[in-house]
């Protein structure tokens, strides 16, 4: 199953990008899991690129996976983040199953409202 590898890579990439963007000289990532999930979500283009967009599509999938995993961690810490985690899981699952960004767009839009 490819999902765990993708998720681990996505979270690692997301954390590295967030550390760089936070300007923290110490290298510490700042923000809660929910804040980082929302930051990853905000980096998704609107609309999502199609599979014919090559690398842009792959980057969007990885960012979505990272946002999903961070939201899941946030929900494990505090149940108030469960709707965000569930919505991102559904969006990621739809994208994985259909490879059609238009199928995932409504869930991504809904997830943005939780941020």
UniProtKB/TrEMBL annotation:
It comes from the Bacteria. Residues 1-24 form the signal peptide. Keywords: Signal. This is Lipoprotein. It comes from Streptomyces katrae. The lineage of its organism: Bacteria, Bacillati, Actinomycetota, Actinomycetes, Kitasatosporales.
